[in-house]
Amino acid sequence: MSQGIIDVLINELTRLPGIGRKTAQRLAFYIMSMPAPEARSLARAIIDIKERAGFCKECFNITDSDTCEICSDPSRDRKKICVVEEPGNIIVIERTRAFRGLYHVLLGVLSPIDGITPEKLKIAELVARIGSTGAEEVILATNPNTKGEMTAHYIADRLRPLNVIVTRIAYGLPMGGDIEFADEVTLGKSLEGRRNF
Question: What are the domain boundaries of the chain?
Fold first, then answer.
């Protein structure tokens, strides 16, 4: 095996977000040592997602059909829509088993400096969806950072005329966390998001 083959794989792996040269090298050597059927299965999964996956026509989650499993599930609460930044956020929220409503994926967040304006996100589609479905509550679950907050405020302003309840996920201390080690912003958000006990 020539060194060129492994270098090509390492270079391709470094294109993935968060994968530096050393991690790409480890992954490349791991892939090389995998049994051939496992390596083919990995390659097939990558090809399948590129050839068959698309976005749900209702919520913009990733799916291999017109409508994703969540949107087509009749047991979901259609009166609640949780707005997230990316499809990966849905996986994390679903693991909690705390939410049984529907989702809406923005496919990003507002970032004027990077040229990400409201027109480049799925905000107009959210507004149209709320107007046509009769949803009663929209939960804004964007990340608690500057871009996520800016996006949440923009969406809340756009939804005000629709007579829908707009809520924001709470922030604060994680279970098992220690107040002594919390930063001021997290602790402040914990105090703001307090509820009756």
Answer: 3-52, 75-168
Asked if 124 contacts 90 with a C-beta cutoff of 8 angstroms, the reply is: no
157/123 Cα distance (integer angstroms):
11
- The DSSP H or E segment spanning 63 is strand 62-63
CATH number for region 3-52: 1.10.8.420
Is residue 112 within 8 A of residue 167, CB to CB? The reply is no
pLDDT in tens, 117-158: 999 999 999 999 998 888 999 999 998 888 999 999 999 999
Q: Any bridge partners for residue 62, and if so which?
A: 55
What letter would DSSP give residue 35?
A: -
> What is the SS3 assignment for 71?
coil
Half-sphere exposure of 181 (CA within 13 A, CB side): 4
Q: Quick check: 53 and 47 in contact, CB under 8 A?
A: no
> Does pTM top 0.70 for this prediction?
yes
Beta bridge partners of 160: none
Fold (topology level) of 75-168: Dna Topoisomerase Vi A Subunit; Chain: A, domain 2 (3.40.1360)
Q: CA-CA distance, 29 to 34, in Å (whole number)?
A: 9
User: Is the alpha carbon torsion for 15, 122, 84, 65 positive or negative?
Assistant: negative
